What does this fold into?
Amino acid sequence: MNITKIDEAAIWEALRQVVDPELDCNIVDLGLVYGIAINGVTISVTMTLTTPGCPMHESIAWGVQSALLNLEGVEDVEVNIVWSPPWTPSRMSEYGRSHTGVSDSR
It folds into this structure.
């Protein structure tokens, strides 16, 4: 059996392809991804959204699953949406802030 090792850098790059359509910025630079875990052929993503009532909840979660299932060696993706700690603009990268026009609120 030939098992492909899943590359963490490739996971982060794939997650950068998932865009929050309301903010037109990827979920990594928005600071929505709190962590990833690789367990064999399964990737678990712990993330949040900008607001608990985000109307794009299902669309963004589906985008995460779709992006990661396209990676070689990935057979399953778990997306865990959490609300603690709550998201704040201070979690955004420099690119995310400049792309969305949000000032650095640290």
